[in-house]
Amino acid sequence: MGTCFSSYQDLAKRIVDIAMADVMAACSDNLHNLFSHQAAAGWSYQGEEQEVQLYYKTFSSTRHGFLGAGMVSQPLSHVWAAVSDPTLWPLYHKPIQTARLHQRVTKSINLVYLVCSTALCALKQPRDFCCVCVEAQEVPPSLVGQLSVMAAQSVYDTSMPRPSRERVRGEILPSAWVLQPLAVGGREATRVIYLAQVLLGWLSHRKAEAAA
Q1: What sections of the chain are H helices per DSSP?
Q2: Which residues contact 17 (CB under 8 A, 6 or more apart)?
């Protein structure tokens, strides 16, 4: 895919729709369920880390699903400023080692290059991803109020980095950060849900080199 605005706009809508459908299926149309260890659609509770409820979904040996739910004692505008800037992702999401803005397609659509550690999945080689990131505002029928969404999915664009010998090219399936504003004790807070669905791949160095 070359950088075509209309094509990316169509793709962006599909990514947001699929990612939101997956999040709402996981929480049975009620985000609060994810904060009380009640996930559906094949997600299993893994425990709590730094006040974030963690879930995992098994698809296959190379496809993994990660889901988290947490509360941030900051207004939505502050949290959104961090989530909507891909270059800041490595600061608060440990597996991401590098996040580079490759191209701004529109005001709400960006092409981003990521390099991630796969130690949590017992894999030695780092994975890299070429993805399109989309900012959106959603109002699911089952919820009251508006959600701020940063969704992402892998994309092939001829202008983005080619596979290399040092890393295995992975694939990000429809994934998202979902933010919901709340009032807690009279103060503004933000409920944060993240969904990461990845196909980590298995290519050897030689196959990755041949693809370059």
Answers
A1: 5-26, 76-83, 89-92, 205-211
A2: none
State phi, psi for 118 to the nearest 5 degrees: -120, 25
- DSSP-derived letter for residue 172 is E
Is beta strand 171-184 parallel, antiparallel or unpaired with respect to 187-199? antiparallel
**Residue 207 φ then ψ, to 5°:** -70, -35
Strand duo 127-138 + 168-169: pairing? parallel
CB 108 within 8 A of CB 80: no
The pLDDT tens digits of the residues spanning 18-62 come to 999 999 999 999 999 999 999 999 999 999 999 999 999 988 877
Angstrom distance (rounded) from CA 114 to CA 129: 5
Measured in degrees and rounded to the nearest 5, phi and psi for residue 158 equal: -60, -20
How far apart are alpha carbons 107 and 125 in whole angstroms?
A: 34
Measured between alpha carbons, how far is 145 from 104 in angstroms, rounded to an integer?
29
pLDDT digits 0-9 by tens, 150-172: 999 999 999 999 988 888 899 99
Task: Provide the token pair at 123.
Answer: 């894999």
Q: What is the DSSP code string of 22-57?
A: HHHHHTTT-GGGGGTT---TT-EEEEEETTEEEEEE
Cβ–Cβ under 8 Å, residues 138 and 163: no
Structure tokens at 73: 């004692």
